[in-house]
């Protein structure tokens, strides 16, 4: 399951990465570029993975989507601030900052998707 989520998240990350690079190339603030690009990516990942990876067959998908959006709003804002801090205070290139933050966001997203679809975390 983690591998399949990794493939879908990888595609989401490509969407995120390409949009982030494009927006920063047009001089968008780093935190805003990450917020926009990550939002597009997490919506893609949610709709592809909720039924195909986590095999959620229940109803009330709207409620899960609302919880996912609230979680992602907090997670994206947090990651965006961290990326902005790494970029401006450590002098890293925006894309390097984003790459550093990505493994943590991937793991947190996997755990949250598992929790809202199965009711449990997948620590293994």
Automatic annotation (TrEMBL):
Residues spanning the signal sequence: none
InterPro entries reported for this sequence: GtrA_DPMS_TM (IPR007267)
Keywords of the record: Membrane, Transmembrane, Transmembrane helix
Regions crossing the membrane: 7-26, 32-53, 65-83, 95-116
Cellular localization per UniProt: Membrane
Cited Pfam families: GtrA_DPMS_TM
Membrane-topology annotation of the record: Multi-pass membrane protein
Major place of residence: membrane
Keyword Transmembrane helix: yes
Domain GtrA/DPMS transmembrane per the UniProt entry, residue ranges: 4-117
Record's keyword annotation contains Transmembrane: yes
Protein's UniProt name: GtrA family protein
Organism of this sequence: Caballeronia jiangsuensis
């Amino acid at each position: 399951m983690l591998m399949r989520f990794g493939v879908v998240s990888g595609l989401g990350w490509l969407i995120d990465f390409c949009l982030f690079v494009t927006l920063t190339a047009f001089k968008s603030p780093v935190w805003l570029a990450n917020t926009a690009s990550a939002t597009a990516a997490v919506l893609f990942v949610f709709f592809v993975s909720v039924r195909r990876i986590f095999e959620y067959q229940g109803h009330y998908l709207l409620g899960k989507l609302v919880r996912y959006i609230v979680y992602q709003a907090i997670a994206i804002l947090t990651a965006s601030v961290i990326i902005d801090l790494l970029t401006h205070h450590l002098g890293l290139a925006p894309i390097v900052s984003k790459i550093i933050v990505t493994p943590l966001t991937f793991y947190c997203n996997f755990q949250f998707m598992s929790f809202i679809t199965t009711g449990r975390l997948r620590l293994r």
